[in-house]
Amino acid sequence: MENQTVRQVARISVGGKSVRVVLSNAFGEKPLTIGAGSVGIAGKDGNVDQATLKPLTWGGNSSVVVPPGAPILSDPIALSAEALSEISVSIFLPKKTALSSVHWDGVQTAYISGPGNFTNEAAFKADSTLKSRLFLSDIWVDAVPESEAIVFFGDSITDGNCSTPDANNRWPDHIAKRLQEANRTVAVVNEAFSGNRVLTDGMGVNALGRFDSDILSHPKVSTVVLMMGINDIGWPGENAITPDDKEPTAQDIITGYKQLIDRAHAHGVRIVGATLTPFADTFKGLPTEGYYTPEKEKIRVAVNEWIRTGGGFDGVVDFDEVMEDPAKPGYLRDDYDCGDNLHPNDAGYKAMADAVDLDVLLGSAK
């Protein structure tokens, strides 16, 4: 990209009177030049409410250069935003820019302009769109002092793969809505990305490698909810996604969980484990159908048994029980299946969120 503006939308969970935007050059090999930026309450089709549109600044400057490997936090911008508001963030990229720090499965439209800086324009004419997030990492809200944050740490199922784009139908999105309806001042932070694994890099950095930067770095984080491991099981093996990778044992994955549990507890953070949902016949008929085998199912069952009974987590959410077809053990329910035997549809994601006991997420003292 060069001499173009990118406008993106993200829904916040708690409200406040000001916001700060975090941009990331985490995977960039060169400095990232942001020529200008803006933030406001999102309208439809990439437009912004003109009355709320504000320029972003960094140390009082209207532009900034982000070093390779670094994030950049904007100055606080006065913007009154209700809980569950959709916030629009625009950035102008004046120089030739490689799309290095990207969340590819954003399930949200990124609007990309033709040549020019359109950060201060309420109406936005897009030359192209993507369903990925580009450089936008976080939106911080100046919430009430007693607020806290729950971080959802997962793979494509927590990332909302197969859900309707631009509709906020990921299961953590539904949790955010439930928390607001329960008058809880709790922020929901989604730190999932499709393809993530506990033990091994692949489509991004492994969970052990990114735990500090993606979980412990968040302000006021009180709890992390871990739902990850199905890609560790499914990816390796003949006709799967990484055929040369060694297939882990259930104990390998459990050992990874124990590491994450110990590291969370060392920082005073609770950690809740979610069981791995059914995946029988995942990608059947495709070149990647080796993602599922009966032997891999045994690993999933053993991992889930430890999540439920191992005593390592501070709480457990049993999504396997919620999503399994009672007439076909090991299979995702047809009415919750988006069609690949792995990912839920919109109804499935909502069913997952509805099954969560909020007291398990927040702790019995809340």
Radius of gyration: 21 Å
Helical proportion, percent range: 10-25%
The order of strands across the largest sheet is 5-4-9-1-11-12
Order of helices and strands: EEEEEEEEEEEEEEEHHEHEHHEHEHEEHH
Overall body shape: globular
Number of strands: 21
Would you tell me the overall average pLDDT?
A: 96
Number of discrete helical segments: 9
Oligomer: single chain
Sheet-strand content, in percent, reads 25-35%
Q: Structural class, please?
A: alpha+beta
Q: Distance between termini?
A: 47 Å
**What are the segments in which pLDDT stays under 50 over at least 5 consecutive residues?**
none
Largest sheet: 6 strands, antiparallel
Notable features of this structure?
366 residues, alpha+beta, six-stranded antiparallel sheet, five-stranded parallel sheet, 9 helices
Explained architecture:
22% of the residues lie in helices and 27% in strands. The chain has 366 residues and is an alpha+beta fold. α5 (250-266) runs parallel beside α6 (294-309). The longest helix is centred in the last third of the chain and has 17 residues, at 250-266.
